[in-house]
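Protein: Phosphoenolpyruvate-protein phosphotransferase
Species: Cryobacterium breve
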Amino acid sequence: MQNFTGVGVSPGRIIGSVRQMPKPISEPPAGERLKAATTPEVATVDLRAAAKVVQAELQRRAEAASGASKSVLEATALMATDPMLIKAAVKLIATGTSAERAIWESGASVAEMLHNLGGYMAERATDVLDVRARIVAELRGVTAPGIPHSDVPFVLVAEDLAPADTATLDPNKVLALVTSGGGPQSHTAIIARALGLPAIVAAIGVDALQDDTEVYVDGAAGTLLVDPGDEQRTAVKAWEHVAASLSMFDGTGTTADGHLVPLLANVGGAADAVKAAAAGAEGVGLLRTEFCFLERDTEPTIDEQVVAYKGVFDAFPGKKVVVRTLDAGADKPLPFLTDSTEPNPSLGVRGYRTDLTSPGVLKRQLTAIATAAQASSAVVWVMAPMIATVDEAADFAAMCRVAGLKTPGVMVEVPSAALRSASILTEAEFVSLGTNDLTQYTMAADRQLGTLAALNSPWQPAVLQLIQLTVAGAIDEGNSKPVGVCGEAAADPVLAVVLVGLGVNTLSMTSRSMSAVGAVLKSVTLEQAQKLAQLAVSARNSDEARTRVRAELPILEELGL
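Structure follows.
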């Protein structure tokens, strides 16, 4: 039995057939010419035929889709035989350019034109680039890019998934996600947890698996087995029983001895907030305000932001909603705010720092948040990402006071903020640990790189020690200010116990994770959690830390976690 091991990032056990994610289509070489035996007339016929095939396939998928996915596919299908796109490519073919290079250049020109028109037309630019890649794939006789199509559910195997790859990902068709790259905080890991799909990342070698190979995936153990037997089929049935019992959170996060640990939700807009409230979330621990700013060429108006924020606040009347101000830069660039030429964006002008180069954007956002808060009964707190110094915390707190926001806080994402939390909390009212970036910066390991997945684990004792120091700073000299965790670490039921043992007051996660976290927390007392936290902090490495804690939590086997 062939066995692949990676990092388990989302629990679940499933048996299914593999579908490999096609590799991205490479750009045809600049200056590529028609082959000697191919005339421009024949190449033109081939191009038009390929475009028709692509259009038919997209229309077929659109008919089987629904909601936003259906609209995306219908719009893309229309673009496949767009006269402007095809005509420009045919002109290039007439000069001797290969059909592949012609449609590539034509697509770039049309996309740029649409982008410059702005508004709805600018949104269609992405469709053009998708279509040209599909037509090139058809001309080459290779599989088109994107999530593979299948009439039956399957296990999606890939090098990694980019955010754009998920536009047509149907959780009713994708049984599990397994990637050879990525890390515990990669896009794939975050997507899997949000959708409740079993997932493994950094499983080196899975790229070689053939389509239709039957595999067993254990998202908690981080293992993939080829040709599963009776033992694995029994494990899947056991998980199905457990999953049904973990489908709902009862609305109260607590340890076995009654120590309350509110379980909050990470949300990215009103729709997420409504779902989180229905799932029993006790509030919002992280509202990602980027949803107002992404895919725009200009800053949203204050009025537009007010409407968007109020939709979230109204989902949690009388409850806490923690708003993170715009976290632009690095993996979330904005054309009107960030500098795409920065040599190292993760260490550049991002988060709070954008106020240095684009003053006014943060002030207007705080005004919008305050206006929306005044029109809602939610208890609104606000925090700034990428705070590194006490002076930055003081400046942000002053801006909040001017805007009329009474509870300013900061994200602890860089080691300096953790080490100086006591001083920072003389200026701020709370801190929230963003464990994704805190781990990345502490270990100097890009969170998207599968080869560094072991380094990029929040179980690293150095990261846990920084969390411990942050909590110590929060109670230094009687401050006793709240410390939350809103990074992906809070969604790990085992690590959640450690975080509570370290003194973290609240945990924020995807709403799908709350039931498992709540169930494991209720199996330990606060004293037991504190002892487990010390076992983890004193471990030699991340694997030892995780193994030590798991060994002391028998409920994990019972719950299939």
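Remarks: DSSP finds 22 helices and 16 strands in the chain.
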